[in-house]
């Protein structure tokens, strides 16, 4: 499915609150917090000239979030950052003075953090970030996971000391239960999706993701002409598209949101003109994107900055995982999880079916984001036919099929 953005707000300025969240000052704050992380490094931006040539593009870049802060996903930037901000705000309130990121290890701040419990629902990656952030500052974490979250992903979260709570149903069911239980117990919900009356914290999570854009723009000689980014509830797409719109203005790239056909809630919002709960049936292999209602805050941004919305099928997502593991020519091998290469899958589909509508041609400079590595290595090996370790070690034959 493909839908140009026909919303009345398309290409209008961002809402004032969203512009503040996703603007330059917000990205500066994120950068300052990241500088305090021991394992912070800018993630690589890979050029794929062989694939660009095959597709008929000028250049193709993949921003690879597969090693972000040791968590293997872009989500490492959002949940933990929001936890840090919330702990510092609470400590400032209780201590009666301003405290900043450099104070996170002070005994009096850690004493405040120890009294706090942060909670969230997750498909895997966001919960891992929230749990890691809580462990780093000395807070407690309660993470709600739905029936479709693999045991491997649950274990990856639990290793940070979080209390794991299984929920019947899907991601949206876990979001509701996390909010209900947190309200009963006085916990702080750190969600990457928003709802009426709950917008600021999801905004902080989105603000963390602006680091991806800032780094990428500093890694290229010319800004991209086209960007394809995948969406679950819409947070990363809104953060990337919103920051690009603020920084580049009228020179911003054509921005396309890509989703699984089986869980296209942002596409549903684009079709209806507002967020709607979409019907769901069979689960998608793109597990981190299996969401059935767009975040209202994310939609508010995407209504303005997205130029098109599209979906890809299950086999397209898997094919991209395999292609990135077995590149042609001198393209580097990249480990992309089930949801990691969905933006690239959208680009490949667009080059076949929607090239003219998006203005894609041999002069186009395209940026996509590999949003996750092999966050479930066993599942990755099942789908790709080899282990992520072998891909990274260069033991997989280029161009081979599993």
TrEMBL record:
Q: What is this protein called?
A: Diaminopropionate ammonia-lyase family
Instruction: Name a Pfam family for this protein.
Output: PALP
Cofactor (UniProt): pyridoxal 5'-phosphate
CDD domains recorded = Trp-synth-beta_II (cd00640)
One GO term in the molecular function aspect is:
diaminopropionate ammonia-lyase activity
Say if the entry is tagged with keyword Ribonucleoprotein. Answer: no
Q: Where is the Tryptophan synthase beta chain-like PALP domain?
A: 41-371
| UniProt source species | Mesorhizobium australicum (strain HAMBI 3006 / LMG 24608 / WSM2073)
Question: Entry's NCBIfam families?
Answer: diampropi_NH3ly, PRK08206.1
Say which domain of life the source belongs to: Bacteria
* InterPro entries, sorted: DiNH2opropionate_NH3_lyase, TrpB-like_PALP, TrpB-like_PALP_sf
Supply the alphabetized keyword list: Lyase, Pyridoxal phosphate
């Amino acid at each position: 499915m493909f839908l140009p953005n026909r919303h009345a707000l398309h290409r209008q300025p961002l809402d004032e609150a969203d512009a503040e969240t996703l603007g330059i000052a917000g990205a500066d704050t994120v950068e300052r917090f990241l500088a305090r992380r021991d394992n912070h490094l800018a993630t690589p931006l890979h050029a794929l000239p062989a694939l660009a040539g095959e597709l008929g593009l000028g250049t193709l870049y993949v921003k690879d979030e597969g090693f972000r802060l040791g968590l293997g996903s872009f989500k490492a930037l959002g949940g933990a950052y929001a936890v840090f901000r919330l702990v510092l705000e609470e400590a400032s309130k209780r201590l009666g003075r301003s405290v900043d990121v450099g104070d996170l290890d002070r005994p009096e701040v850690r004493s405040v953090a120890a009294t706090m419990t942060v909670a969230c629902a997750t498909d895997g990656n966001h919960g891992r970030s929230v749990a890691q952030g809580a462990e780093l500052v000395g807070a407690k974490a309660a993470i709600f996971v739905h029936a479709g979250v693999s045991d491997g992903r649950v274990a990856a979260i639990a290793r940070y000391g979080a209390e794991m709570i299984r929920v019947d149903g899907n991601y949206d069911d876990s979001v509701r239960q996390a909010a209900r239980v947190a309200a009963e117990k006085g916990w702080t919900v750190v969600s990457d999706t928003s709802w009426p009356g709950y917008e600021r914290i999801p905004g902080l999570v989105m603000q963390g993701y602006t680091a991806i854009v800032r780094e990428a723009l500093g890694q290229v000689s010319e800004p991209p002409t086209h960007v394809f980014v995948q969406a679950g509830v819409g947070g990363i797409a809104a953060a990337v598209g919103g920051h690009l719109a603020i920084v580049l203005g009228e020179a911003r790239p054509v921005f396309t949101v890509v989703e699984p056909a089986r869980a296209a809630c942002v596409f549903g919002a684009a079709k209806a003109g507002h967020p709607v709960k979409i019907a769901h049936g069979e689960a998608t292999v793109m597990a981190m994107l299996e969401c059935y209602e767009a975040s209202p805050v994310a939609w508010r941004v995407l209504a303005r900055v997205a130029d098109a919305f599209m979906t890809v099928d299950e086999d397209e997502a898997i094919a991209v995982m395999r292609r990135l593991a077995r590149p042609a020519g001198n393209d580097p091998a990249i480990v992309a999880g089930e949801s990691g290469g969905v933006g690239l899958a959208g680009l490949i589909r667009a080059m076949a079916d929607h090239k003219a509508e998006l203005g894609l041609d041999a002069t186009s400079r395209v940026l996509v984001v590999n949003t996750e590595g092999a966050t479930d290595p066993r599942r990755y090996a099942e789908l790709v036919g080899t282990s992520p370790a072998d891909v990274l070690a260069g033991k997989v034959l280029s161009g081979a099929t599993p």
